[in-house]
Amino acid sequence: MKNKKILKSIIIILILIEGISLYLLYRPNNNKELLENVKAKEVLKNSEHSLAIKVQDENTYEYEDAGTNTEWPSPTTHYYYGTSCVDETGQDLGNTKQIVEFDDTTNTATITTKKTVYCTIYFAYKKDALDLMKKTTTDSNLLKKKDTNDKLIRYIGTYSQIKNNYICFGTSNISTCTSDKDKYMYRIIGIQEQDDDLVELKANQLKIIKATPVKESSSVKAIAWATNFSSDIDWDNASNTVRPYLNTTFLSTIDTAWKGIISNPKWYIGDDKQATSTTGITNEKKKQTTGNYQVGLMYASDYYNSWSYGSNTNSWLHIIRGTSSSSTYSSQYEWTMTRYGRDGYYYLAWNVYTGGTLDHDIVDLTRAVRPVFYLSSNIKLSGEGTETSPFIITTKSNN
Question: How high does pLDDT run on average in the chain?
């Protein structure tokens, strides 16, 4: 009898131990335990629940259960870039769209689950382009006006110095951008310091260049600057080859929403026989296009002023040394938008040689092209500007 009581007591103790173990293993953890390394958090209890926001700092926000009053960060000031969720046991729930859908144009959420889950909503603080460019540039000498006649604050340095001016265009998804750099990756040449009425540009407009040359069927597109080397063909002329290609064929590859934030200015097209000197900008500005065009090329002065020391063989703007895929473009010459003018019987335009020097060649030779355009003046950015974490355009407006 006594042994039966002892056995019964042992069984009861074992059951209690098992029960306590199961409770400890599966008990609901609080938010701090589940997300102790996450600064922003959100509690979703059911589809009728909404959330309140408490600002923690400029980059992260803490969400708390708040009945029916929800205050999300304004899409004007903050950029949504992701959600991750766990259940009560701390297990990653994977596809967050089955739990909460987020509209990043209005910064509103639709809760699609009635389970108790814990989600991290990530936001970045949107900054004016110049503010963020300065913040991510450690040396002020690498981002400045180089020439008194210039209205552009430029990135100036070697390919090893300028590594923080990458920007995605055509997508706001970093993964999409970095996995298809030929389509989406650009670099910032500079930003307008002030209005330039002659070419209809406003202060704070970014000037960006495609990081890699235009390709067709996976091969670099080689195109002549003009059809005839003996005729006076400027950028407006119908026989100019590059302009219609850039503003029709290339432009058609860009989605309408993104095309809408590309400015439509005039461009400087003064002939310049001194592009490798400080007078280059002055010569270029002696003439403007009569028409307005969304897409152009870099000026010879853009390339010349991209480095502080005259010779530009190590400039960040050189497509061979300035890209992580340099071997792909080792044989590419690249046109600029600037014409040299007439030299005897021939008309010439400036191009960049494979060695990185700026020189002039006959206009009917074929060269690689990298499209250049200006963005609207009131876009906002997020990101670090590196090749792996490029700037993202978080506000798109064509004002």
Answer: 76
Q: Which amino acid is at 182?
A: D
Exposure of 263 in the CB half-sphere (CA atoms within 13 A): 24
- What angle (nearest 5°) sits at the alpha carbon of residue 251, between those of residues 144 and 195? 35
Is the pTM of the predicted complex or chain greater than 0.85? Answer: no
DSSP 122-179: EEEE-EEHHHHHHHT-S-GGGEE---TT--EEEE-SBTTT--S-EEE-S-S-HHHHHH
**Residue 373, amino acid:** F
Query: Which pLDDT band holds residue 79 (cuts at 50, 70, 90)?
Result: low
From residue 290, give the alpha-carbon distance in Å to each of 4, 88, 135, 267, 366.
105, 65, 38, 9, 25
Backbone angles phi, psi at 324, to 5 degrees: -75, -15
Whether the predicted pLDDT of 200 surpasses 90: yes
**How do the domains of the chain map onto residue ranges?**
31-125, 128-395
> What six digits make up the tokens of 302?
């853009």
Distance (Å, rounded) from C-alpha 153 to C-alpha 144?
5
Partnered with residue 120 across adjacent β-strands are 84
Question: Where do we find the tokens 């059911």?
Answer: 46
Instruction: Judge contact between 381 and 393, C-beta under 8 A.
Output: yes
pLDDT of residue 20: 40
Read off the pLDDT of residues 81-94 as tens digits, 9 standing for 90 and up: 556 666 667 777 66
pLDDT at residue number 217: 87
Give CA–CA dist 262/207, Å, rounded.
Answer: 10
> Residue 35 CB: number of other CB atoms within 10 A?
19
Residue type, 104: D
> For residue 298, how many other CB atoms are within 10 A of its CB?
23
Q: Indicate the pairing of strand 152-155 with strand 185-192.
A: antiparallel
- 248 contacts: CB under 8 Å, gap ≥ 6: none
And the tokens for 8?
């019964």
Instruction: Find the radius of gyration of the CA atoms of the chain.
Output: 28
- Where does residue 41 fall: left (phi above 0), alpha (psi -120 to 50 degrees), or beta otherwise? beta
Burial (Cβ within 10 Å: 0-12, 13-18, ≥19) of residue 109: buried
